[in-house]
């Protein structure tokens, strides 16, 4: 919480586990849509 303005600050992250270094991580369609909806706080 930012005490000066009394605003709750939210920061979102998507946590994925990688099986090995250098490999791509994929998101499901629902995860991708949610990240687009919440772009400002990701």
Automatic annotation (TrEMBL):
Name of the protein in question: Uncharacterized protein
């Amino acid at each position: 919480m930012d005490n000066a303005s009394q605003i709750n600050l939210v920061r979102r992250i998507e946590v994925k586990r990688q099986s090995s270094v250098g490999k791509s991580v994929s998101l499901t369609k629902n995860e991708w849509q949610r990240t687009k909806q919440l772009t400002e706080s990701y």
